Amino acid sequence: MTSALNNRFTAVPFTKVRVDDAFWAPRMAVNRERTIPHQYRMCLETGRIGAYALDWRPGMEPAPHVFWDSDVAKWIEAAAYSLATHPDPALDALLDATIARIASAQQPDGYLNPHFTVVEPDKRWTNLRDLHELYCAGHLIEAAAAHFQATGKRALLDVMRRYADYIERVFGTGPGQMRGYCGHEEIELALVKLARATGEARYLALAQYFVDERGRQPYYFDAEAQARGENPATSYMGRYEYCQAHLPVREQREVVGHAVRAMYLYAAMADLAGETGDAALLAACEALWADLTLKKLYLTGGIGPSRHNEGFTGHYDLPNETAYAETCAAIGLVFWAHRMLQLDCDGRYADVMERALYNGALSGVSLDGTTFFYENPLASTGARHRQDWFGCACCPPNVARLLASLGGYIYGEREDALAVHLYVQSRVETGLAALRVETRYPWDGAVRITVDPRAARFTLRLRVPGWCREYRLAVNGAPLEAPVERGYLCLARDWAAGDTVTLELAMPVERLEAHPTVQADVGRVALQRGPLVYCLEAVDHEVDVRHIVLPEDAALTPRFDQALLGGVTVLEGRAAALDETAWAGTLYRPVQDPVCRPTPLRAIPYYAWDNREPGAMTVWVRR
Amino acid sequence: MTSALNNRFTAVPFTKVRVDDAFWAPRMAVNRERTIPHQYRMCLETGRIGAYALDWRPGMEPAPHVFWDSDVAKWIEAAAYSLATHPDPALDALLDATIARIASAQQPDGYLNPHFTVVEPDKRWTNLRDLHELYCAGHLIEAAAAHFQATGKRALLDVMRRYADYIERVFGTGPGQMRGYCGHEEIELALVKLARATGEARYLALAQYFVDERGRQPYYFDAEAQARGENPATSYMGRYEYCQAHLPVREQREVVGHAVRAMYLYAAMADLAGETGDAALLAACEALWADLTLKKLYLTGGIGPSRHNEGFTGHYDLPNETAYAETCAAIGLVFWAHRMLQLDCDGRYADVMERALYNGALSGVSLDGTTFFYENPLASTGARHRQDWFGCACCPPNVARLLASLGGYIYGEREDALAVHLYVQSRVETGLAALRVETRYPWDGAVRITVDPRAARFTLRLRVPGWCREYRLAVNGAPLEAPVERGYLCLARDWAAGDTVTLELAMPVERLEAHPTVQADVGRVALQRGPLVYCLEAVDHEVDVRHIVLPEDAALTPRFDQALLGGVTVLEGRAAALDETAWAGTLYRPVQDPVCRPTPLRAIPYYAWDNREPGAMTVWVRR
User: Model pTM?
Assistant: First the structure.
C-alpha cells in the first residue's frame, strides 16, 4: 500500500503517546476505572455477552438483537486501548475470555452473528438495508484490529479475518457474488483498519468494493426488498438518502440522512482517498466537508439536528432545544475530520475535530463516567439528562473507545515532519523525535514543547487553532516568526536535544454569532474561549437562563475554579434578566421597551453541563 | 334539556345568517363551487364512496381504511351546510345518493363501518384506542345532524340514530356493556348534536358517559390491549396523554397529546358543562383554556407544534419552521372557543376563535379552493406547499365544513340579548331582531348595524376585539358610551325599526412580541392589523426574507390592493437586509456590527401565503 498523496501524514498511534494533562488524563482515568467496567456490566446484564453462547431458543426474552455485537465490539475496542496504555491483568483476562466467547459463536464458514445464527437463521444477508449485519461485522473487525494493536494478541484478529474472508467470498462483482452493501456504513472503515493490521491489501479492495458499489443503479436495496416480497417504496426511511445510498459516492455533494452512517462512510472515503489518491473520491469528500461545516454544523461540533432520521435536514437548520446531535455523530465527525487531516495536514480539519471533541462528543459522558447522553441539545428546559444505558446503546461505548484512544488524535507524522494537532500535555515518541508537551490547555493557551530529536532535521508543525487570532512563538526563548501553512506554523530546522519551543495562544472570551440564515440563533450570541463552547445552567442562576440578556459591553472574566465540575474555567460577568412578571396573562403583546434587572451571569463549559442539579440550559444567549 | 348556566348564549345557526361580505362570501363561493365538488371527486376516486358497497374482497387494493368514513362524513356535512344557504338540486341529489350508499352498508344490528364489516369483521370494537371506530361513527352522526338541519331530510339521521342506539347498547356501565371510549375523541360532541337534532336526552347521556369514563383507572385501553394479547406499555404513543385519557377529564389541567383529539374532547366538555352546569367540568375547561392560550398557542391560532404526536409539547415550545399546527387543530380550536363563548359570552373566547379562524384555519385552503395545508408552519424555507389531497385526508373536508357553516359563528342569542361575535357583513334573523351588518372588516374597522327589532327591548352586545385599543360607538349618529362586559359593549335599550349603530374600531398596524420564554421568537416581532396576522413572502422581496430586519422606527403603511390575492390589505415600509455576502466561508464568527442595506418590505396576510410563486416565508421578523 502506497499513497499517491505526497503531503499525506500518518496519525501517531495512541500507543506512542502518554497523556498526563489536567484536562484529559482524569477523564481517561474515569473512563478506565468506571466507564469501561460499567459498560461491561451493562453488556453482561442485558444479555449481550451471553448471546455468544448461542443458546437462545424461541420464546426466550430478550432475543439477541441485530445490533448487539456492535456494543460488545466497541467495549472490546475501548478496553483494548485502555490496556495498551495502562496494563491491567484482570482486564486483559476479561478481554481474552470475552473474545473466546465470541470466537465460540463463529460458524464453520466464518460467519459470526448471534442474531442471524439462532434467532433468524434463514434470514442471513436478506436485509442488508435495515438489519446492521455488515455493520456488526465492521465493529467486530475494528475491535479485532484494536486488540491486536494494543496487545499483540491475534485471537480476535484471526476470528475476524476468517469472517472477513467469508464476507469477501459472498460480496463482490464476481459471478455468484452478492452485489450488496450495508445500510449502516461501518465495515468500510473497519476493513481499512484490517488491511493495515494484517498488511493484506485485499481487505482494502473489499472496502473499496463496498464504497464503490454504494448508490449505484439499479439499487441493490430495491432488488433485496423485492426478493423479500416487499415494496421498496415503503422502505423505513423513504429513499436511500437516509443511508447515503441514493447516489454513487463520488457524485455525492450534500451531506444527507442518518448522521452516524454519513460520518462512517465519509471516514472510509477519506481513508481510501488517502490510500489510493483517487481524485474523484477526494473531491466528493471536500464538497461534503464544505456542505457540512458551512451549513449543517452546530457550534458544539454536534451534527444531525433531527430525531426523525437521526440526521440531517436542510441548510442552516440548526434548532437548539430539539437538536438531536447524537454523541456517536460528533464522534463520527472526529473520525472523519481526523482522516481528512491526514490527507494534507490542513488545520481546517483539526479545528472541526477539536470543536467536536471538546464539546459535542465529550458532553456525551458524565464527569463520573457512568451516565451518557444520546442526544446533545444546545438548550434544554430541564428535562434532558444522561442515562446509564440505552436499548440502542451505541453512544456509551463509542465515547469510551474515543477517550481510551485519545492519544492517537494529538500528533501526526510524515517522513520529514511532525505535526502537533491538539495541545494536550503529553509525551510522544516517533522516528523523528520525542516530544514533551506541557500545557494547561484548554484553560490556558501557553504551550511549551521540549524536543529530543531522533533525526537531525525535520519540520515541527504546530497548529494555530482557528479560534486563535493572536499568538507568540519562541524557540529557546528567542521570539520567532515562522511561516504558516494551512493553519500550521512550520519550524523547519536542525534540532538539538533539549530545544524548547513555546507558543502562547491568546485565549480571550469570544462572543460568537451565527450565520444570519440560522433562524434558531437570531438575536443571540454564544460564548467561547479557546476550543470550549460555554453554556448557562439554571443551577448557577437565580433567573430563568432563557430570560438572560447579555449586553454588548458586559465584561466577561474567566476564572479557574478547581472545586467546580472537576476543575473548570468559568466565565463571569454582569448581565440583565427580562422581567417575566410583566407578562402575566398574555402570550403576545405590542412591542414594549423591555423591563430588565441586573443579574450575575456564570457560564460553564458545555461539555460539563447536567452534572449538577437538573435545570434549564442554553448555549445561545440573548444579546 | 335545560341549562344551569344563566348567562348561557346560543349560537344563531348559519341557516338564519346570510353572509354577503367581500372577505368571506367569495371564499364561501369558492368552497361551494370548487372545494366541495373537488372533494367529492377525491372521495370517489380514492374508493372512499365505493367502500359502502361492501364488495371489497381480500387482495383488493386499497382496502377500506379505518378512517375513510370520517372524510366522507365531513364532506356530507360541508355539502349539507352549503345546500342550506345555496339551494342546488344536483348537489341535493348527490347527497341523497351518497346517503343511500351509506345506508346500504348498515348492518342489521345498526353497526356501520365498511372497514370492520368487510376487511376485519372479527375485530369490531377490539381496538378503540387506535382504530377510530367511534370517531368515524361520530363524524357520520355530525353529518346526519347537519343534513337534517340543512334540508329537513331524515334519511341519514335515521340511519345514525339506529347506529347510535346500537352504540348505546354496547357501551356503558351496565351489566354486559363495554366500558370503552374512543382513542380519538369526536363521538362525544357528535352525540350532543344528535341530542339537539332529535330532542332525545339519552344521546346526551351517552356523550356524558364517554366523557366521564375517559381516563378512569384501571385504564380501559390497558385491558383492551391485554385482551388483544399485547403489552399495553408498548402502545403507539406511550401512555394515554396522547389521547387525553391519562386522567379523568375533570382532573385534567394541562393541554396534552394529539391536538385535534384534545380540541374535540374539550369542545364536548364545554357542551356538556353548558347543558348540565357541571362546575367541575367547567373548571377543567377553564384551566385547560388558560394552559393553551397562555403557553401553547401560536400567534396564528395554530396549536400543536410537534409532528411526532401531531400535538402538544412543553410550555412556550412554539417553533416556527417546524410548527405542525394542523389545520384540523386550528379548526378544532374554533369549535372549542365557540362553545366556551356560548357559556357566558366572554370576549376572550371570541378573540381566540377569531385568531384561529382568520389565520391558522383559513391558511388551510388555497384561494382557488382546491389545495390544502395539513401543517401550517409560521416560517418556511420554501418547500411547504398545499396539496390537493392526503392519504389521511382529515383537513380538506374540515375546512370545507367550517367555511360552509361560517354564518353560525357570527352571532349569539339569549332571551334578552343578541351578541355580535364577529364582524362579517351579513343579515341575520332572530327572535329579538333582524340585523343588517355592513362592514369591510377585516380590512377596515368601521361597522354599521341597522336594527329591525322583533322585541321592543333587548341588549345588543357588540364585541370589542382584544386587538382593539380604541373605538367609537354611536347610535343613530349620536356618540355613546356604553358599558363593557367581558369584552362586549352592552347596548340595552328600546329599539326602533331602522335604528343604526356604528362602531369604529381603530385598526393600526401592530408590532407584536412573544413572551420571553418563547425561544423561537427571541429578537423578533410579528405584524398584525385587526384580526389578521401578517407574513413576509419571498415573492415580494429581492432579499431572503430571513435576512430582513425591521427597524423599530420604520413606518408601515396599510394599502388595499384589489388585484392581489383576491384583494388584500398589504403592509408596506422600508426595512433593512443583512448582507449575507460578508459570511462567505463561515458559519460562526465573532460578533460584528451588522452590515445592512435598505430594502422595501411588503407583508401579506398569513392566510394568503403560498398562493403565488413558491418561496420562503416568515411570520416573525428580526427586529
Answer: 0.92
